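Ticket #4471: structure output looks truncated?

Reporter: J.K.
Steps to reproduce: submitted the chain below (330 residues) through the standard prediction queue, then opened the result file.
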Amino acid sequence: MKAAYFEQPGPPETIQYGDLPEPHCGPGQILVRVGAVSVNPIDTYIRAGANFFELPRPYILGCDFAGTVESVGEGVTQFKPGDRVWGSNQGLLGRQGTFAEKCVVDAQWAYPIPENVTDEAAAAVALVGITAHLGLFRCGQLKPGETIFIRGGVGGVGSMVVQMAKAIGAKVIATAGGAEKVELCRSLGADHVIDYTSQDIRSSVQSIAPDGVHLVWETLREPDFDLMVDLAAEQGRLILMAGRDARPPFPVGPFYVKCLSLHGFVMFKIPAEEQAKCAADINHWLSTGKLRPLIDRVLPLSQAAEAHRLQELNTIEKKSCLKGKLVLKP
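Returned output as attached by the reporter:
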């Protein structure tokens, strides 16, 4: 089978596209013919050499997948050949990734694709959708009628946060860069969108929510805790999902005087049964049109190296060159 993989970490050019042996499913696993995958920042960190965990060699890239079940292993009862499935959590913790014509997945990490949802959409929503759901509801305990501020409302996770918050009836304030992205963020359902290229974030949010916001979601790799604490309401919650190497100053006094709480998490450490609950909501919102992934472009899997280059330009170099997810098709 064809796959995008590397033997040793390095720059995007390290990625090879070629033939690898076809995998076979064992007990509790399913073999999926891949229809689409998507690129996430963590894929580029691992490829660049981040030592998060031991990698198999050769290492197939990718966390997310959508496709069709070809066969099932012993003990698998929830899926059968021909079922369409999506999921994430691959290429992590020693597991092989998904950037291939076929992948083997533990059945607990797979979810049915609604009939009216494409493989491309399911793959694009996988990691970012589960991450958004966990942060909003498991960590942030967002409730209908509350106000959330999301910094980066048209990014991979940010666009999911905006839509999920609106789906439960929250008030959404978000940022975006430039007129085009501001309008895109509004189209996702944000009640107020601040153009960070021309407006001051602090004063803009405080004019919209003078008593503060209940949930502050930071997507940047370098969090601004002074801003987050200033914007939060009494007993507000702060969410972090990026910035592994960041060591920013922290305003201890204002934080505890407001009785705030700070939550950081990585989705791949959350138990499978909890992620399955996220997937159930995601499927409902996808099938009813309340959730739509933003897809910047669809590329052939053979262009995985180019996709990684674009993702790094957007994430590491902060070029803001993407308006949604990069999706690849074998």
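Triage note (M.O.): checked the attachment and the full token line is present. DSSP finds nine helices and 16 strands in the chain.
Status: closed, working as intended.
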